[in-house]
Amino acid sequence: MAISGTTSGPELLVELDRTAPEPLHRQLANGLRDAIRTGRLAPATRLPSTRALAADLCVSRRLVVDAYSQLAAEGFLLSTHGSGTRVATVDTASAPERDAAEPVKPFDIDFAPGSPDLGSFPRHAWLRALRQGLDEIESQAFGYVEPQGLYPARVAVADYLRRTRGVVADPRHIVLCSGATQAVALLASTLIGQMVAMEDPGFWLHRMVLRHNGIEPLPVPVDDGGLDIEALAASGATAVLATPAHQSPTGVVLSAARRTALLQWARADHLVIEDDYDAEYRYDRAPVGALQGIAPDRVVYVGSTSKTLAPGLRIGWMVLPAHLVGPITLAKGLADTGSSVMDQIAFAKLLTSGGYDRHLRQMRRRYLARRNALLQALTRHLPEATVLGTAAGVHLTVRFPEGFPVAELVHRAAGMRVRIEPVAPCYAEPTSAPPGLMLGYANLSESQIVAGVQALARAAGCLSAANGPARRATTTMSGISRSPH
Ligand SMILES: Cc1ncc(COP(=O)(O)O)c(C=O)c1O
Q: How close is the Cα of 310 to the center of ligand 1, in Å?
C-alpha cells in the first residue's frame, strides 16, 4: 500500500492500494470525497492539475480525470475553464462521514439518468413467473450448468428479440449475462490487443469498463446523424461499441445513410457491438430495427432489463456471431460460472407469458407523459436549455450556451436536494465538453419533474445574476424537439 501526497497543490493524502480489488479510480474518488466531506479539503481549495496529481500518484492522467469528473458530477468539485478544479462548498455538518453500511440519503428529486420507474417493478408478475417457472423446471437446472444461460431462457429471449427488434436470434448464439456492463467486459476480454472505437460522447461507464479490461477506446465523434462513420473508418479501429437506436448520451438515432455505411464498414472484417440499451422506448414512431438483423455475423447485439424492469436485476444478453460464442461462453464461465438460474427462470416465464410485453406497454405510456412534462417544464422555466435527440428512451440530454457554468448549477441544485448529472463525463475529454446535462425522467412523477425544473430555473437564475445573462443556445442536433408530442 502506498500513501501518496502531491508535490503541487494541497497535501491530499490519498491512499491508493494497488493490491485491493477496488479499481484505483474509485479509490481516488472515494479518498477525495472523504477528504471534502470531513473538511480536510476546505471549500474553494484548488486541487492539483490532473497531470500533476497523476504524476505524483504514479497513475494515468485519465484515471485522475475520471475521478475528478465523477466528483464534479456529484457536486463535490467545481471545474471551470481557466481556473482549474476547486472544492465546492458542501455542508459537512449535514454530510458526516458515512458508515459504509449506511444507505446514501436520496435526493428529493433525482434526475440521474438511466433508471426506469423503480416503483413500478412488476413484483406480482415477477413472483407469479418465478413460481410457475419453478413448478415446471427440472431440479437439474439448479446445478453448475451452462454458463451460457439456461436453454429455455435463451429460447425465450431469442423469440422476444426476433419479434420486437428484428434480431437474427439463434438461442445457441446467445449468452445471458449480468447486464450490458458485463457484456462489454466479456467482449473486451476477447478484443485485447485490437483497436476498439467508441462513440464520443458515449456512455462513461462503458468507457471505464473497456479501460479496466485493458482497452483504451478510440474516441469517434457523434453529430446530428449519430456516429461519424468516416471518422470511424479513418481511426483504424477493428471494432466499435455504439448505440445506433438511441445514441447515449445525445439521443440521436443513427441516420439511414450512416447505418448503411456502418454495415459496410462491419463487412470489411470489422465488428460492431450494438448496445441496444433502451430501444423498447420510442415514442414518436416504431423503433428502427437492430443492425444485427442485417449483418448477424459482424454485429454483437447487446441488451438488458435495466431500462425495462430494474437495473438491480442484472439481467442482460448478447447475441453473438458464431466465432465469438465459444470465447464469450468461456469468459462468462470464468467470470462467475453463469448468471443466477432463479432470475433466468422468472424472466423466461415473464417473457413467454406476455407479462413483459404488458409491463412495457404500460411503462411506455407513463414515460411518454413524463417526457412531455419535462419538455414542457424546460420550455417554460429553463429556456436556455436546448433539448437534443429523438423522442425515445428514459432520459433526455440538454445543452446550454457556451460558457454556461454547469458544474455550479449541479452544485446549487444539490443544495436544493435536486440531483442532476452533467454530460461532461461522457466525453473522452470531459474538460472540453460542451455544457449540458443528462436528465432522467422515468423514475420521477410529473409533479416532481415540474418542481425539479422549477428548482433548476431558480438555481440557474442565481447563476446568471452572478455571471450576467446567459445567451440562448445556438448548437442544435436534428430531431431536437422543444414541444411535447
Ligand atoms: C448506454 C447504456 N448502455 C447500457 C446500459 C445498461 O447497462 P446494464 O445493463 O449493465 O445495467 C446503460 C444504463 O444506463 C446505458 O446508459
A: 11
Mutate to test the pocket of ligand 1, among 198, 248, 421, 443 (most ligand atoms within 8 A of CB): 248
Q: Is 85 strand, coil or helix?
A: strand
Helices within 337-429 (DSSP H only) = 341-352, 355-381, 406-415
Best substitution site from 306, 336, 397 to test ligand 1's pocket, by max atoms within 8 Å of Cβ? 306
The tens digit of pLDDT for each residue in 413-466 reads: 999 999 999 999 999 999 999 999 999 999 999 999 999 999 999 999 877 665
In the three-class reduction of DSSP (H, G, I as helix; E, B as strand; rest coil), residue 444 is classed as coil
Tell me how far apart the alpha carbons of residues 363 and 340 are, in angstroms, rounded to a whole number: 26
Residue 243 Cα: closest atom of ligand 1: 1
Q: Which of 258, 268, 266 is nearest to 478 (CA)?
A: 258
* Radius of gyration, alpha carbons of the chain: 23
> Which residues, in sequence order, are bridge partners of residue 282?
392
269 C-alpha to center of ligand 1: Å? 27
Nearest residue (CA) to ligand 1, atom 15:
277
Q: From ligand 1's centre to the CA of 114, what distance in Å?
A: 7
pLDDT tens for 298-355 read 999 999 999 999 999 999 999 999 999 999 999 999 999 999 999 999 999 999 999 9
Distances (CA, A) of 168 to 293, 302, 315, 327, 344: 5, 13, 20, 20, 21
pTM, two decimals, is 0.79
